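for the writeup, i need someone to sanity check this before i put it in the appendix. the sequnce is what the collaborator sent (i think, or maybe the updated version? ugh). structure was predicted straight from it, no edits. if anything looks off just tell me and ill rerun, i have time this weekend
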Amino acid sequence: MTSRQLVNFYLHQIEASNPKLNAVIEVNPDARDEADNADSRIKSQMKIGELDGIPVLLKDNTNTNDKLNTTAGSWALLGAEVSGDATVVERLRNAGTVMMGKASMSEWSQFRSLKLPRGWCSRRGQALNPDIESGDPHGSSSGFAISVAANMATILLGTDTIGSIICLANITPLSGLRPLLDSPVGQASSQFHAGKTVSRYGCIISF
């Protein structure tokens, strides 16, 4: 399967499922072009990385210096300029991935209001659990997990402060990975645990 075919498959899945699930906040208009470029590199045996041509969705709080917005689910940041790609996005681009788009999330990572339902944001509305419509979509990475569970993406990169990946992997048939980074014991951090600082970036994948 070519990268273009894979991207077309997921775009079709998003078109079919997203109007109900509200998991993807926007799609990269250049996704097909990026896939074509990856296919050309692969055909010419000039792959730039092990992930060349693999489509990835990003949580809507991860900066990308392209046509995609980064809004944390809020209309307030629509059209705002970012200084550049997040470091993790730079690394993904260097590995050859195709940026498919941005996944919805609990607006401002649930900090807009403690009374808002989990999985709601003003830009996309209420995200729904793909397995049980009345079920808790959790958050703040709601669209992140829903997109994978509903087969709208293979890999999705998001952030986790206190449970946005772990809790979502717990309530869906998915695997979540939240890496740990070394840090000095005693470092003040809300993410501190047993002498480690938890990286806020992680991924959810389906098998």
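Confidence is low (pLDDT under 50) at residues 182-199. The helical segments are 3-21, 31-43, 87-94, 142-149, 166-171.
thx in advance!!
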